[in-house]
Amino acid sequence: MPKSNFAHVDQWVFDLDNTLYPPQARLFDQIERKMIRYVMDELGVSRERADHLRHHYWTTYGTTLAGLMREHDIDPGPYLVDVHEISLDHLEPDTDLAAHIRDLPGRKIVYTNGSAPYAERVLAARGLTGLFDAIYGVEHAGYRPKPEIEAFQMVFAKDGITPDRAAMFEDDPRNLAAPHAMGMRTVHVAPDPHAADHIHHHTDDLTAFLARIK
Fold this sequence. Notes:
about 210 residues, alpha/beta, 2 domains, 6-stranded parallel β-sheet, 9 helices, HAD-like_sf, EC 3.1.3.-
């Protein structure tokens, strides 16, 4: 992978979950259990039905929250607090990753479909506090989720991101389609490659990838 692929980039956008920490930490297993319980309590349905709705809304709308808001008028604030109250004991500081992020030229932000307070907790557990110029959660996109292009547009407008000078790092391949359409360099961070025209690069090791493009 030539460094020249990123020579024009001075704005770096990172997803959070399973991107800035390895999926082996399995934080989302905890979040999913909290989502299922929340759906059970709010909608008065069985665990099996709640799990089905959780996945159906994620597939259909981009996030479970988006489906709950559109189909059940759920208040997003309490939901975001509740489902992100999880243990971060499985996360460890990563000094190598921190060093490579620190060395990237230009502006660096985190943009997650989770909440910004949750992102701050995860970054602290990973030893990445203070490395990013801004942290954006789904609340900063008016609760519109990635992969909706309007969500990206809202966050990037708030931050002043210029897409043709930016790169996006993300574990969910769906969430790279809009950045690609906007003119960004796209990097899929996941154990297994996903072949798609909107994905420029794949890596299963974000730290090593960043080391190669400096």
